[in-house]
Amino acid sequence: MIHFPSKTMILFVLIITLALTGTALAATFATRVSGPEWLNPGYRFYADSNTAWGESTCVELHPKNPEQGYHRYQCSYYSDQGGGTYRWQCNTDTNYPNNTIEYQFFVCDSGTNCQTNCEAWSGFNWQFNTGPTAITLRALAAAPALPAALPVAGVIVALGGLGGLVAWRRRRG
Questions:
Q1: What is the pLDDT of residues 74-131, one digit of tens each?
Q2: What's the burial of 31, exposed, middle or buried (CB within 10 Å: 0-12/13-18/19+)?
Q3: Can you tell me the distance from the alpha carbon of 72 to that of 121, in angstroms, rounded to the nearest whole number?
Q4: Whose CA is closest to 87, among 28, 33, 27?
Q5: What are the start-end ranges of the H helices in the chain?
Q6: Who contacts 100 (Cβ-Cβ below 8 Å, separation ≥6)?
Q7: Cα 73 from chain centre
Q8: Does 121 map to a domain?
Q9: Are residues 84 and 123 in the same domain?
Q10: Higher-pLDDT residue of 52, 30
Q11: Are residues 45 and 90 in the same domain?
């Protein structure tokens, strides 16, 4: 005799499947993120996302120290990455000195400055710091201030001078 799962079990499996599918889509909206680059004023980010026709990617910044609210910026189409994924360039126009800024990406209707029909929030998964200690060192090179032979020559001159002083004192004394 074959036993079929109960209606409750089937409903439970369907709900779990739908919940996991929604979570996966929201989590993979911004598939590749880079930045920020400091523009002075503002910052630049790049995000790859699976937007549909009529949608734009947006970035939302949240300066935390001190708390300065939430600031949304609509990104500009940058390039097609293939497979339904598009790269977006997001430029902001404000510096937030001496702060920790968390940020997230999401999708809204194009041309609404990220205010209408927003969805697919990535969550505040990224952050960066600004201020005097938030320096990215790209290259460091040091050059000797003096030629390498100069200290050796200095020691020789010093020893020679000391020897000359000893000889001069012997003659006098």
A1: 999 999 988 888 999 999 999 998 999 999 999 999 999 999 999 989 989 999 998 7
A2: middle
A3: 12
A4: 33
A5: 7-27, 149-172
A6: 63, 64, 65, 127, 128, 129, 130
A7: 16
A8: yes
A9: yes
A10: 52
A11: yes
Beta strands in the chain (DSSP E): 30-38, 43-49, 55-63, 71-74, 76-82, 85-91, 100-109, 126-129
User: Quick one: which of 137, 26, 35, 122 has its CA closest to 78?
Assistant: 35
Q: How many CB atoms lie within 10 A of CB 85?
A: 14
- Tokens, residue 29: 């909206």
Range of the domain at 158: 142-173
**HEC per residue, 20-31:** HHHHHHHHCCEE
The dihedral through the CA atoms of 37, 132, 68, 63 has a sign that is positive
Same domain, 61 and 90: yes
Length of the chain equals: 173
Is 7 a member of any domain?
no
For the chain, the domain total comes to: 2
Between the CA of residue 128 and those of 32, 62, 117, 134, what are the distances in Å?
17, 11, 28, 8
pTM: 0.60
Distance CA 48, CA 31 (A): 6
